[in-house]
Each structure stands twice: as structure tokens, then as C-alpha cells.
Amino acid sequence: MRKVVLDTLQKGQTVQAFAEALGGRQVAGRPVQVTIDPRCRPWVDHVIEGWVDGPPTSEVAAVLSGRDPDADQKWRRFTVTWRGPGRYDIEVFPTPFNNAMDPLSPGIPPGASRRAAS
Q1: Which CA distances in Å does 114 have to 2, 10, 21, 37, 105?
Q2: Which of 14-23, 65-74, 98-107 has the lowest mean pLDDT?
Q3: What mean pLDDT comes out for the span 13-34?
Q4: Residue 3: which H helix or E strand, with range?
Q5: Proportion of the chain above pLDDT 90, given as a percent
Q6: What is the pTM of this model?
Q7: Rounded Cα distance, 74 and 65, in Å
Q8: Which residues pair with 57 in a beta bridge?
Q9: Phi, psi of 4 (to 5 degrees)
Q10: pLDDT score recorded for residue 98
Q11: Stronger pLDDT, 101 or 54, i.e. the higher one
């Protein structure tokens, strides 16, 4: 479930562009369905600067760090959550952060994430 998400992520793309790219992929011959949570809409223009995969026992496939394109020092944390075969939701945490790495650390136990974007 994580592979298609992690293979689709690219630094420098917006959350919206990532959602569209993920929605253009296929899993087991079926198109991937992506739903962007309505609370996420104000921030879909954030630029993805980094990510980690979610904890192995979680349905969170990845946690993304998105930079506000209009305010270089404001970041938000987004989650890509598996909701069933070929179905993913993109959600946002409402709290902004002031640097690129803090958005990736709260709520993720040390050692739980196996891979970080390089």
C-alpha cells in the first residue's frame, strides 16, 4: 500500500499535483482513488519538501512536510492514509510549523518511520 504513494512523491511538487499524480496511478490494474479532505483545501498549494513513511502498523502511508509558497517559514504536515484497496485520503494537521523538519516529528514514535526523503 505504501509503495505506490512513496514512488509517486517528488520534492517540489504541490500537494494538489501529488494528489493528481497519485490518482493517475494504478494498483492491481485498477486506478487509484484519492480524496482530499475538505479541511485540506486551503493548503493544497503547499510545496512538498520532505516526507517519511508512516509507522508500519498504521494505515498512514506517508507524512508529508509542505511549505507555504507565500510564506517561506510556514510549513504544514499532511498525511496520506490508506482507506482500502487503491483508496487514499490526504489530510492536514491544522497547526503550522516554523521549519521543515518539525512537521515530520510530532506523533511519530522514534524509529517508527523506516524511510525519509533524501
Answers
A1: 12, 18, 23, 26, 13
A2: 98-107
A3: 94
A4: helix 2-8
A5: 48
A6: 0.81
A7: 10
A8: none
A9: -65, -35
A10: 74
A11: 54
78-115 residues labelled b (16+ CB within 10 A) or e (exposed):
bbbbbeeebebbbebbeeebeeeeebbeeebeeeebee
SS3 100: coil
- Residue with grid cell 501529488, as numbered in its chain: 18
Under 8 Å between Cβ of 62 and 5: yes
Taking the C-alpha atoms of residue 52 and residue 25, their distance in angstroms, rounded to an integer, is: 20
8 Å CB contact between 34 and 22? yes
User: How far is Cα 118 from Cα 77, in angstroms, rounded to an integer?
Assistant: 17
- Taking all residues of the chain, what is their mean pLDDT, rounded to a whole number? 83
Domains of the chain in sequence order: 2-104 (3.10.450)
H or E stretch covering 35: strand 33-36
Average pLDDT estimate for 60-76: 86
